[in-house]
Amino acid sequence: MILKVDDENRVRTLTLNRPDALNAFNEALYEATAAALTSAAADPDVAVVLLTGAGRAFSAGNDLKEMQARITDPEMANQGSHFTTMIEALTHFPKPLVCAVNGVGVGIGATILGYADLVFMSSMARLKCPFTSLGVAPEAASSYLMPQLIGRQNAAWLLMSSEWVDADEARSMGLAWKVCEPDQLIAQARSYAETLASRPIPSLIAVKQSMVEPIRSEIAAATERENAHFAELLGGQANAAALADFTAKKQS
């Protein structure tokens, strides 16, 4: 089971469950997460979704083996990706989304936080957006959401540098709301999630819609721009070299 689903006190916990791959998103996990969000949105007994990861990572981002296969296999390249399906589900998710970052968050494991209403991070967690080190463009509308969330200069560093950001730095940027001791992370995140879940669901939805509706068109426009840049850069010289280096390290 690549995505665990648990319900308690009107909070649905979604746990990314590919710990051996550091919860990297492959097509199956993108699809499963999108379906789980859509299901939670429609379920009258679910008020809040809490997203976390199994094992020592939150998510290592996009599965680079699948990225490489997409470059070399024309059939895969023409199939599209459930990444888009998940981003659509996140963009239109009408209820509070709480993320508990239990370990490293790389790529989509960091940019997904732009869709969260509350972010809790383990003091041992770190984030990285490795787009420039992979020779590609940002994704998940992060080029729009991150400047909105953490300011232009913080976003520029996060998206351009491919450097790690630790939990305290993430909190000072405004990317994380609270930093917790590792063994207290889920309990604290759940406590706040249950406080939200105790409120009337129609009211929660009204608040979130009022906050998010004005920027949905901007999210869609940013996604379109990013996708165009990503398609242009995928398989290019810098990207091919980065993926070849990744493969060589895996084989050594």
Total domain count = 1
Average pLDDT, all residues: 93
SSE class? alpha/beta
The helix content is 40-55%
Q: Please report the first level of CATH classification, the CATH class.
A: Alpha Beta
Record field, number of beta strands: 10
| Order of SSEs | EEHEEHHHEEHEEHHEHEHHHH
Task: Please describe the biggest sheet, giving its number of strands, its sense, and whether it closes into a barrel.
Answer: 6 strands, mixed
Q: Name the CATH superfamily assignment.
A: 2-enoyl-CoA Hydratase, Chain A, domain 1
- The spatial strand order of the largest sheet comes to 1-2-3-5-7-10
Shape by Cα distribution: globular
Q: Strand content of the residues, in percent? A: 15-25%
Which residue ranges are poorly predicted, with pLDDT under 50 across at least 5 consecutive positions?
A: none
CA gyration radius, whole angstroms: 17 Å
The number of distinct helices, counting runs of at least 4 residues, comes to: 12
Measured between the Cα atoms of the first and last residue, the distance is: 30 Å
CATH architecture: Alpha-Beta Complex
CATH fold naming: 2-enoyl-CoA Hydratase, Chain A, domain 1
Q: Which quaternary structure do these chains form?
A: single chain
